Amino acid sequence: MSDLRRLISWLLLALVAVVGLGGAVLGTALAPKNAPLEKAVSNTLAAPSYTQIVTEKTTQGSESYFLVWQAPNRLGGYVQSGNRRTYVYVLPSAKGPMEYQSVTVAADASTEHLTFYRQPIQSAASVDPTKIYLHYAVGAKGVTSSGNTYTFTLTQTGSTGTPETGTFVYTVNGPYVSQFNLTVANESVQLVISDVGSSPPVRLPAGAKILPLPTTTSPGT
């Protein structure tokens, strides 16, 4: 997950975040017209739920995130690299939002009785890829459009201290944003959004075993 976090860090200047498949069509027969970009962003972010697939490609390889957002504060799914998966969730608790991360298992392994490690987190929204990436379309400068596709660029100082330019491309279908692409140098992120308002509820798999995140100690202690 480190490479995707580095890309998001480049965008958010130290905000840490936590999955491409084919495009998803979100328009319906009742809403044949595509909303303007900022309205589509607002509609998507206000939705009670949505499914998202983030595919991140770097010079080290690719990794995919399959996540569901459930308002107001639930996020869950899994990260897949090759044929291995790590299940991740952010859920509310009496002590505030908690992140749950499973041990890594084979992609075809049963999700029952997985072991999860728990630690506090700021919020589910703070690590939701859709909320992070759609935010950049609000008030963006120099936006060009072609049909239902909107494009702009943003230059910031990268992790090496040199300016890097990211190209942002948003696709609107009906009232919602259905796809986002970011390209920075030789790296890219694609976000596909689907099932807006009809995604499954977010909950830990049946029989999950919850443990606190192991603490590290200095040698000799």
SSE layout:
Elements: H1 2-12, H2 37-46, E1 49-58, E2 61-70, E3 74-81, E4 84-91, E5 98-102, E6 105-106, E7 115-120, H3 129-135, E8 144-146, E9 149-157, E10 163-173, E11 176-184, E12 187-194, E13 209-212
Parallel strand pairs: 7-13
Antiparallel strand pairs: 1-2, 1-12, 2-3, 3-4, 4-5, 4-6, 5-7, 8-9, 9-10, 10-11, 11-12
Commentary on this structure:
The protein is mainly beta. The chain has one domain (2-212): outer membrane lipoprotein receptor (LolB), chain A, CATH 2.50.20. Helix content is 13%, strand content 42%. It is built from 3 helices and 13 strands; from the N terminus they run ααβββββββαββββββ. Strands 1, 2, 3, 4, 5, 6, 7, 8, 9, 10, 11, 12 and 13 form a 13-stranded mixed beta sheet that branches. The longest helix is centred in the N-terminal third of the chain and has 11 residues, at 2-12. The radius of gyration is 18 Å and the shape is globular. The two termini are 30 Å apart. The model is unreliable at 1-31 (pLDDT under 50).
